[in-house]
Predict the structure.
Amino acid sequence: MPVTDITHDPDDLTITITAQFAAPVERIWQIYADPRQLERVWGPEEYPATVVDHSLTPGGTVTYYMTGPEGDRHYGYWTVLEVDEPHSFSYEDGFALEDFTPDSSLPVSRCVSTFTAHEGGTRAVYVTTFASREGLQTVLEMGVEEGSRSAIDQIDDLVA
């Protein structure tokens, strides 16, 4: 299981996930850089993702939806802020309506994904920062910890 730690800090308004993968940094980077690979790990196994638009460049956008077991769809977007290939990228992550316009009723977060060589593989650290305690609490209640663990744990099978 790649996820080694998940913490949330209500004072810093963050969720931090640490994972360890038995693959080099460049291989882990490819997963996020390739929309077809990203689909295989973005979202829990029972909510597979479909990436519609994918531009992992500063100012670029990634749009996607996850399909639930009952056929329900959940839409989201990234607005890419910074990219340091293959080491890190940051983006604004938000929930969206069906036409991919931001859903203002749900929180937006700033995410930083960092990949470093570690013990023959890759250590990934995912830090998500919210604008308010309410935003952080909303996603915690939605099951972000469990969903993130399930999604990230799928990376091992993809890189095997």
Observations:
- The radius of gyration is 15 Å.
- DSSP finds five helices and eight strands in the chain.
